[in-house]
Request: fold
Amino acid sequence: MTLLSGEASGGTILRHVLQPSDLPARPVDVWLPPGYGSGSVRYPVIYMHDGQNLFDPEGPFGSWVVDGAMTRLMREQGLPGAIVVGVWNSPGRLVEYMPARPLRSPAAAALREGFVTQVGTEPASDAYVRFLANELKPLIDVTYRTWPEREHTFLMGSSMGGLISLYTLTERPELFGGAACLSTHWTIGGELLVDALGAALPPPGQHRLYFDYGTEGLDGAYEPFQLRMNGHLRAAGYREGYDYHALRFDGADHNEAAWRARLHLPLRFLLAGTIG
Reply:
C-alpha cells in the first residue's frame, strides 16, 4: 500500500496493487475523506471504474477530480462524504466491462459472435464482478472504516463503466444499493442489451439508479436506448425522481470534462437520495 497524497490535498489517497483471482493485476486507489485519519466515523463506499481517471488531473484523459467534488458536497451541503475506491482498468477493459449474461441467451448469438470477433475473446465481466464482490469489497471493509451494508455501498462509472456498474448491481443486488451510470455505452449491445439488463433489475425500493447522457460525440447516439431503459425502470416499479433519475445534458460530450462537470449530481443522489 502506497500513500499518494495527504490531508492537504483534500483527503488522503492510498494505492493498493491487487491481483484478482481470474484477471490481470491492477492498482486500486482508495480516497479517504478529510478528517478520516483523526476520527472514528464510518463511511459509505463508492466503487468506481476506470480508476486512473478519477483523481489525477495529469492523467492521459484528464480527471473527474472526484476528491474535489466530494469535499465540496461535504463542505457546502453537509453530506458526510464517502470512501471512494477507484479500480483501474486493465488492457482488457472492453472484455471486463461487457455484460456477459445477456450475451449467453440464444437471441444474442449474433451479438456475442460479433463481440468475440472484434476483441478475440468472450466477455470477462463475470470474473470482474466476482473480484469486486468477493475479493475487493471484503478487503475494503476489513481495512477501512466502512458501513458495509448494501444501503451504503454503491457503484459508478462512465461509458462501458456505466454498463459494468449496472451489470454488477443486477448480478449482486444484495451487496450494492445503487449505481450511477454516466453516458452509458448502450450502443455496444443495442436494444437486446438494454432489454436484458432491464429484465434483470432488482425489485424497486432498495436500490437507487442514476443515468445520464449528453448530445455530442458518442453520447449523441444514446438517447433512444436510455429512453428504452427508462421504460423498463417504470415497468419494474421504479419511481422517477425517487428510485431513479435519467438526465439529458444538451451539448455535453463523451469525456472526463463533461462527467466532471455533473459529478456532483450522481454523488448527491447516491449518498442523500436527492439531485438538487
In short: The CA atoms of residues 5 and 47 lie 19 Å apart.
